[in-house]
Specification:
Chain lengths: 566, 353
């Protein structure tokens, strides 16, 4: 194996380069490069679109120049350069092709603007192609050189670059957040592009990069000693430290909407509802291993129950006029009931069949809500309007900043329930079912009640999320409850790590929060989700923040798989 | 004896029986009332049936792709609906160009063959790529993993094609030679329906002969029976799996063209609903079973076109056609509950799944 890969290393380099080239051409043709080009990372210097292309070349040349520890530098350099050349060559090929044929008749995004970006605004085709090739080789060589840098420093530098890019992307939000503090705003104004421009300024980018890199370097070289010192503290003090950090976190969460302002609170609220649903689906999929693609049904039922019970107007016949708090238990109950009702028929069905049936169930619910058949009760495609907002006393919680507390309370409750359930008797039963249903049954676990409880608990969280969602928007339409919602939630728990609670939160922030903040991303959200699901499943099936046990299991399986394969 | 019988029934079975009985009686009452009211003529019923068969043969062609892959890999190729979409969507540009050049009118037969070739080639390319990139690395992974990858692949493809070709509906050109219809008494068939039914039948016959009577077909059956033993017998399992994906994708591409000339509209999301329906058809006929997919497809097509009117019109449900997907999915649930093996299949859902 090792010999073979050594002999054909240049073929491998070309192959990697081809993959990179195809990816680069594809992201250009689907419009990502052009759309990302609108936003600057470093004001006036480099845009997000260019960064994307750069990132592709760097990634492929990094892989092709990696090799074993003792690979000679010359080989790494040639490998990286070759890969960069091939990738650049394919992009140049696209540019040439675009000059000869009008691709735009078929491929809507092959616009003149795209060619301008790809050729760095060179009018002359020959120069443009030469520039692309040279740039490919240069980036490949530079990337190969990265391997010379020691690992710790490399990691620190990568995190520095990532954080700098992230700050550059989110800088307008950062600045809005800081407006109440004019002194700080003024003090750091030099870091950002001048007025009207996006991204960091050159000096700002370098500063952020250096600070983060040095901090990261220090924490990875000195971090261990600090951790050891903390561990050496008496238990009491350790506990105190932990409690203090929790209290600080709680205090931060409580004042967050007032720091963040109305827009960011709104985004936080959406993320919060997705965290709620993620926690629910996490119980069904992550704990019990029942792949449910119709999770949106419970969300929809919660929302519609809330809507029907509290609406004060519109075309529908319902006439309850309840308050939010009166309706909430019923919304959750409706979802739980649906969870059990769906659960009973599908108890015997396993794996992929379950996925399809639940998907069908979700669609049935949506089509019913949309149909003329139920229109007198549920409003058909016009939905239900004027849904009550939560109130405390005479105080109506209807702004993003006040609704935040309702959602925060919901998330806290759900988090607490999920956390307590995880290692409880029922939680262990769920995990046993996830690993092997037959063995679990043989061990005396009642499959019927255990599975139904998973469905019911998951549905309860979904219903709660739906109810809050309905009163947050104060309207519900069937179109809010499409399959994509289920897929969003599934994507977030998989990215975070199935079965892991911090994973749900991280996943929701990453998968839902980030695209919400970056309008360029939201256009390609599902494309990125799709790619993310594939990549995660192939390279990191346990997710970014995995549950400890699950991670161990997956890696045992890996080892077993390797032995079986050999 | 009685005691043993009582011991064997449990809560879930009873609930299932009640649900099933309720649905069946609803269907019977509904159909009876519809027929008794007699709002529809024989001619209309026959129209529904013909439409159902044409629709069903498209479902059957797509269902074959699910069934073939499931038979060999025991996984639902969720991205198959996008394989179907990619062919029809790509061939649109050829159809449009040929219509503008007048070629479609002068040489309709050749033009349609070219469309088939383009759609099938695109679908095969996409199908093979999906297998290579998304499924092959996960051959030995736990079952949930390839399924999630498949969902990812499905969304990735949908939005890639949206990015490439745009998000509007594209209207396929009208084919002059296929306008009009034939009528025998009350039976009324449009030319397009004839083309759809005949080409689907030919393709399915070809597939059946291939799988049953060629050496490669024998190898496919062997791999689907037992991968490891087949490998020991000198069969290149990976090559057979790729071949299965190629055949399934080619059929889906052909189905894409038939769908496009029937409904004359394509866009990036067109694969979703037919994909789910075709999967339902595959389960209905017994997944992993080739004749089963054909029977299931036809059955589902008929059920869907006749069902809403027959079952729901008598119950005074307004606009019953809006609920045709509900009927299809309910049928899927019922089949999985009461006969998971499907009409022709072996018992899979509980045993091997």
């Amino acid at each position: 194996m090792e010999n073979e890969s050594n002999k054909n290393w240049w073929l491998k380099a070309i192959q990697t380069g081809l993959i990179g080239g195809v990816v680069a051409v594809l992201v250009s043709l689907i419009g990502m490069v052009e759309s990302f080009h609108e936003r600057d990372i470093i004001a006036g210097q480099i845009t997000m679109g260019e960064t994307l292309l750069l990132l592709i070349v760097v990634t492929v040349s990094y892989f092709s120049s990696r090799g074993a520890e003792d690979t000679p530098l010359s080989k790494r350099l040639t490998g990286g350069a070759l890969t960069g050349l091939v990738t650049g060559g394919l992009v140049a090929g696209l540019v040439l092709l675009g000059k000869v044929v009008n691709l735009r008749k078929v491929l809507v995004n092959a616009s003149p603007n795209l060619y301008k970006i790809l050729t760095f605004e060179n009018e002359n085709t020959t120069t443009a192609v030469m520039v692309l090739l040279v740039a490919g080789v240069a980036i490949g060589l530079l990337t190969a050189l990265v391997h010379v840098i020691p690992l710790i420093l490399r990691r620190a530098a990568i995190s520095g670059l990532t954080i700098a890019a992230l700050i550059a992307l989110l800088q307008d939000l950062l600045r809005i957040t800081l407006t109440p503090f004019p002194k700080i705003t003024e003090a750091i104004a030099w870091m950002f592009g001048s007025r009207g421009e996006e991204g960091l300024s050159v000096s700002g980018a370098i500063t952020v990069f250096l600070i983060v890199t040095i901090l990261n370097y220090l924490s990875s070289t000195r971090g261990d000693s600090i951790r050891i010192r903390v561990r050496a503290l008496p238990t009491r003090a350790q506990q105190g430290l932990r409690w203090t950090s929790w209290l600080l976190l709680l205090a931060f969460l409580l004042i967050w909407p007032w720091i963040a302002g109305s827009y960011l609170s709104e985004v936080t609220n959406s993320v919060g509802i997705f965290i709620l649903m993620g926690l629910g689906l996490n119980i069904v999929v992550g704990y019990a291993g029942l792949l449910d693609l119709g999770y949106v049904a419970f969300y929809a039922l919660g929302a519609y129950t809330m809507a029907v019970l509290t609406t004060t107007g519109g075309e529908i016949t319902a006439n309850f006029h309840w308050t939010f708090w009166q309706a909430l238990p019923f919304a959750i109950f409706a979802a739980v009931l649906a969870g059990v009702l769906l659960g009973i028929p599908v108890l015997k069905i396993r794996g992929d069949y379950l996925a399809i049936i639940t998907l069908g169930f979700g669609e049935i619910i949506r089509i019913m809500f949309l149909s003329d058949f139920l229109k007198p009760y549920l409003g058909g495609s016009f939905g239900i309007v004027l849904i009550a907002s939560p109130t405390i006393g005479s105080f109506v919680l209807n702004t993003p900043q006040t609704l935040y507390y309702v959602i925060l309370a919901g998330c806290m409750l759900a988090l607490f329930v999920a956390y307590r359930l995880r290692d409880s008797r029922i939680g262990r039963a769920w995990k046993a079912i996830r690993e092997d249903e037959d063995v679990a049954q043989a061990m005396g676990i009642n499959l019927t009640t255990t599975k139904l409880l998973a469905f019911a608990t998951g549905a309860a969280f979904g219903g709660l999320g739906g109810a809050i969602f309905a009163s947050k928007l104060s309207t519900v339409y069937p179109h809010s409850f499409v399959l994509l919602v289920s897929i969003n939630v599934l994507a977030l728990i998989i990215v975070g790590g199935m079965g892991s609670l911090p994973g749900v939160i991280a996943g929701a922030l990453l998968v839902f929060g980030l695209p919400e903040l970056l309008r360029e991303f939201s256009e390609f959200r599902l494309l990125i989700y799709g790619a993310l699901l594939i990549v995660m499943m192939i390279s990191k099936p346990e997710g970014f923040l995995p549950e400890a046990v699950h991670k161990r299991e997956l890696h045992v399986e890996d080892n077993a798989g390797e032995t079986a394969g050999a | 004896m009685r005691q043993r019988f009582l011991n064997r029934i449990n809560f879930t079975d009873v609930t299932l029986a009640i649900i099933g009985a309720a649905l069946v009686s609803l269907i019977i009452v509904g159909s009876f009332k519809t027929l008794a009211e007699g709002n529809y003529t024989t001619r209309q019923w026959l129209d529904f049936v013909v439409f159902g068969i044409a629709q069903g043969s498209i479902y059957a062609l797509i269902a074959l792709g699910y069934t073939l892959v499931y038979g060999i890999l025991r996984m639902i190729n969720f991205a198959h609906s996008e394989v179907f979409m990619s062919g029809a969507f790509t061939a649109y540009f050829a159809a449009d160009a040929m219509a503008k050049a007048g070629f479609l009118r002068e040489n309709t037969f050749v033009a349609i063959l070219i469309l088939f070739a383009i759609a099938m080639a695109t679908s095969v390319l996409i199908g093979v790529l999906v297998e290579r990139i998304a499924y092959r690395p996960l051959r030995r992974a736990p079952r949930l993993v390839p399924l999630i990858t498949a969902i990812g692949a499905s969304f990735f493809l949908q939005y890639t094609f949206k990015g490439l070709y745009g998000d509007q509906f594209k209207a396929y050109p009208e084919i002059a030679a296929l306008k009009g219809n034939y009528a025998w008494g009350d039976l009324n068939i449009t030319k397009i329906q004839i083309v759809v039914i005949v080409s689907a039948a030919l393709l399915m016959l070809g597939l059946y002969l291939y799988v049953q009577y060629t050496k490669a077909g024998k190898a496919m059956r062997a791999v689907s029976e037992d991968k490891d033993v087949a490998a020991l017998m000198g069969i290149d399992v990976d090559a057979i799996i790729v071949r299965t994906f190629v055949i399934g994708a080619a059929l889906a591409g052909a189905a894409g063209i038939l769908y496009a000339i029937t409904f004359r509209q394509v866009n990036f999301f067109m694969g979703f609903v037919p994909g789910i329906k075709a999967f339902t058809a595959a389960v209905l006929g017994g997944i992993g079973n080739i004749p089963g997919a054909m029977v299931g497809g036809l059955f589902l097509g008929l059920f869907e076109s006749v069902g809403p009117i027959l079952f729901l019109d008598g119950l005074d449900v307004p606009a019953p056609y809006q609920l045709k997907d509900v009927i299809a999915f309910t049928l899927l649930v019922l089949v999985l509950l009461f006969r998971p093996s499907g009409i022709l299949g072996e018992r899979l859902a509980q045993k091997k799944a």
